[in-house]
Amino acid sequence: MCRTIGAAKKRTCTYSSTEQAMTQSRTFKAAILSSGQFLATLTSLILAAVLARLFTKEDYAAYRQTLLAYAFVAPLLALGLPQALYYFIPRDKENGRSILTSNILLLFLAGGIFAAAMWCGGNELLARRFSNPVLSRLLLIFSPYALLALPVSTVSACLMSCDRVKTLAVYNMASRILTVILIISLVFVWRTPDASISATVLAELLIFVPAIILMYRATAGTGWRPNITNIRQQIKYSIPLGLASTLGVITLSLDKIIVSSMCTPEQFAVYVNGAIEIPLIGILTGSVTAVLMPDIVQFYKEGNNAAALELWKRAAVKCAMILLPVMCFLFFMAPEVMRVLFSAKYADSVRPFRIYLLLLPIRTVTWGQMLMAAGKTRWVLYITAVTLILNLALGLIMVRWMGYIGAAVATVITIYVWNIPFCVAAISKLYLAPFWSVFPWYKYSKIGLISALSSLFCLWPRMLVSSDLFRITLAAPVYVALVVVLMLKFRLLEKNALVAILKRVKLSVLG
Q1: Model-level pTM greater than 0.90?
Q2: Containing domain of residue 86, as a range?
Q3: Does residue 202 carry a pLDDT above 90?
Q4: Radius of gyration, CA atoms only, the chain
Q5: Are residues 151 and 213 in the same domain?
Q6: What is the DSSP track for 114-173?
Q7: How far apart are CA 294 and CA 376, in angstroms?
Q8: What is the model's pLDDT at position 20?
């Protein structure tokens, strides 16, 4: 509950036992979901590391370009429909199954568009654009993937909206492990990109049926048939969001598209391994978004702007206490990390990797979440569209000037100079808060300073051992211990709260 006190009309917030319990519940849900997604994302990283060693740079580039072609158009095909379930199911749980069927039907039709486009010449067009004739064959093999992957993409939103967090965590982990095992097994037998792409499609087929069963079991309602009204409402809500998501993914993938088009496949292979976001970003911010979105929507609907903003800011600080230390550690240990993951032949991937790490401070939250909760999906679309245009123009200039590394530099500049300032201004206007109070700048500065100073101690293993893996193994525990001690000292981290969360997660996993 929030109230105004004092002559200066200072706004303070106090929380009842019920609200505190809700906060603990949200933290617990995010922790459980994050643990499942962490294992799932870890398997993806293992897959990339294995294939980078088994394939030549040309074959590895062909594999990554095939996946990039789908990732580039997937948000446009999905039209934001998976995210729409966060909005519609909590508002009408009694008709959850009908809403879900309408959603899946639209996504299945969208997947058919991708498959048809590949079979009608799209594969040849992309192969010529990327100057890689192998892509033509790989894209035909990959074409059925969208028919399966797009409907499955609703799993997270559906299960989270129905409060099935543990089920989702187990599903994420099991599905990814299955995918990785299948791909690696086939590639060990037939060391070709054809085998890896075929295994990717087969794995998606195997996880499709369990995903559908889990979603229909989780949703309520006696009727499961699609409803024309539901379809129209979801399309109306999702189109601006879908276009924004499309432009957002294009913006994040634009540097890779530019490098793939303007540089050789070997240069693209080096760049794409370095120009990555560490798995923790998707794990933490995705989990937090999934858990908090229904509550933020409800707070905004009730006119409780202060509570919505405070909830978002607290989540941002919690994510920052993990992501900012990780950023500093990886920045200092980048050469060792790249060689351990992808072997010495990808040593040059260090440069784009370090540049991409600079995005971590502002990726600790999902900025569009606050605009989506307020129903301003068109604002999200506008911000993302301008970001795309600026990034494209700057990217083309920087690549011609600096080579492939210029694409990463352009992305970072665009995000910091345009995207973030405009998002802060939009949230400030919607939630009636001063510009400077929208984001927890002071706490972020303290966390960043502690992390940066602690990371200086990561250099000492280089004087003792020559093995990259041993250097990381020696540096990591010392760094983590130092960061935790300093955060406790400066009251950024509460010991009792941390212990309580770890105990609950442990009991849940063991139970």
Answers
A1: no
A2: 32-226
A3: yes
A4: 23
A5: yes
A6: HHHHIIIIIHHHHHHHTT-THHHHHHHHHTTHHHHHHHHTTHHHHHHHTT-HHHHHHHHH
A7: 15
A8: 45
DSSP at 375: T
Is 237 inside any structural domain? Answer: no
Other C-beta atoms closer than 10 Å to the C-beta of 370 total: 23
118 and 39 part of one domain: yes
CA-CA-CA-CA dihedral for 448, 449, 452, 455, to nearest 10: -110
278 and 158 both lie in a single domain:
no
**Would 10 be classed as within a structural domain?**
no
**How many structural domains comprise the chain?**
2
- ∠ CA 419-420-422, nearest 5°, is 70
306 plus 416 within the same structural domain: yes
pLDDT tens profile 317-345: 888 888 889 889 999 899 998 898 888 88
- Residue 426 is predicted with a pLDDT of 87
DSSP 492: S
**N- to C-terminal Cα distance for the chain?**
35
And the tokens for 317?
């600080």
- What pLDDT, on the 0 to 100 scale, is given for residue 166? 78
The answer for residues whose C-beta is within 8 angstroms of residue 308's C-beta and 6 or more apart is 295, 296, 299, 300, 370, 373, 431
Query: What pLDDT was estimated at residue 499?
Result: 66
d(CA 346, CA 352): 11
- Kindly state whether residues 212 and 301 are assigned to the same domain: no
Q: What is the 3-state secondary structure (H, E, C) of 448-473?
A: HHHHHHHHHHHHHHHHCCCCHHHHHH
Residue 8 placed within a domain: no
Query: Does residue 240 fall inside a structural domain?
Result: no
Across the chain, what does the average pLDDT equal?
A: 80
